[in-house]
Design goal:
single chain; mainly alpha; 5 helices
Length: about 110
Amino acid sequence: MTGYRQVLALPGMASLLGVSLLARTAITADVMALTMYIVLGLHMTYAAAGGVAAALTAGVALGGPLLGRMIDRRGLRTVLLATVVLQVVFWLSVPILPYGILLGAPSRRAC
């Protein structure tokens, strides 16, 4: 426990870990929402939903470093505004997207 106590005592570390936890919770919620929509809304299999979850995971993994570079170049507020706008557009368009496009949309959305 002393190791954790030492790390959390560093300035800003507790807030960084808190924000990281919230960010991961949001990604998990995205996967769950898309899974439930594909299974219950589109009446497809969990395997099909897993394909979209895999695309989302790949998109987040590939998009993370790109977002970091954009933050360095453009600033946090600009990138945050752009990602919020893209998230709103994505989630508003989910009900009208066919599965094939939905399969590719999460990986493009994260970049």
